[in-house]
Amino acid sequence: MPETARAPVARRRGTFRALSSRPFRRYFAGQVASASGTFLQQTAIGWLVLQLTHSPSTLGLVLAVGGIPSLLFGPWGGALADRIDLRRLLLATQALYAVCAGLLWVLAASGHASVPAIVAINVVSGVVSIADSPARQAFVSALVPPDDLASAVSLNGVVVNGARVIGPALAGALIVTVGTTPCFAVNAVSYLAVIVALLFVRPIATARRPAGGSGVRAALTYARGREQLWVPLAMMALVGLLAFNFAVILPVLADRTLHGGGGTYSLLSTMLSIGSVAGSLAVGLVRHPRRRYLVAAATAFGVGLASTAVAPGTLAACVTLLVTGVAAFCFVTLCSTTLQLHSSPAFRGRVMALWVFVYLGTTPIGSALTGWIVSAGGPRAALWVGAGACLVAALIAARVRTPPHPDDAYTDLAR
Length: 415
Known about the structure:
Strand content: under 5%
CATH class of the largest domain: Mainly Alpha
CATH superfamily of the largest domain: MFS general substrate transporter like domains
Largest sheet: none
Transmembrane segments: 27-50, 56-77, 113-131, 184-201, 229-253, 265-286, 293-313, 319-339, 351-375, 381-398
CATH architecture of the largest domain: Up-down Bundle
Distance between the termini: 37 Å
Pfam families: MFS_3 (PF05977)
Number of domains: 2
Number of strands: 0
Domain Major facilitator superfamily (MFS) profile: 1-405
Helix content: over 70%
Subcellular location: Cell membrane
Keywords: Cell membrane, Membrane, Transmembrane, Transmembrane helix, Transport
Structural class: mainly alpha
Number of helices: 16
CATH topology of the largest domain: Growth Hormone, Chain: A
Shape: globular
Low-confidence stretches: 1-10, 207-212, 409-415
């Protein structure tokens, strides 16, 4: 039987109100452990590959191959998420992730870890993520009432962005003291936390089976007819392609523009991460995302990037990146919440697969474009291009006046 969330007498308020739902609390606790383990392993893989090859280009290739399956087949993962019980699907994907991490642990411990083996494991993990990413996005909406969805999505963002700081820091401590191998063991064990949580979670809502077609084409048709879906998807496609390329921009900004070293790069990345956590928490205060909030967040993101482009020194860049991180992840969380609130349960998995595709699937193309811009005009030019993309996205959203679809239960939230 579906588990019910605690029904309050008064409407809950605040960023953490989603935690009043018992199913979400359990799932959230598992995600805290698992997300940190994931970023811990990514850091350890980078160090291990560099030790094995002493080649930054090989390291870049190894890290990139994991995203190729999602780039090629990501939207089809949503069709699977819409046809299979989400909890069971997530139990399967988390178990497969644990097996991949365990295999990497065994290979590293036995001295048989090689670049081809690491590439193969990364590709398998990438294939698993095709179904896992949209399923996780859609599953959150089944764990809380609609009024608490923004809080749930923001808390998930806090987990991921916090893990981007905690995971690499823990990896650094382990690598220095005991080496890379224990990092893979820790990640493998961390998936047990999610699996145990999922075993005890019972959604408060059950998704309907697909209606009107079960493929990607049906999802595209569905999203195209609803402005509350295609507008945030279009915004994220543009912004994700040209503005979310900090991994390419920040190292060059720290080294060549600010004339710093690894410490400067680490400081800039940390300030951006702190801002992202704050931005994710801020969206939790919003009960229902409105179009004007998306416009404001995209505009603020563009202003933050432009401010970073003209920052005269490291201290100023730290301040502007902190603000940029807040605005960027307010924008991301608002987009995700909007899509989940305005999509039917029968299509939610496919809609969120489209979201993952435009958010993460554009990264390889965007990174290549940004790399060319950085090479031609420097990191400040790339920041200006990203700022322009954000402002164009905000302008598009502000000027769209297509009537919302009559089937949308939240048409009163359009503006």
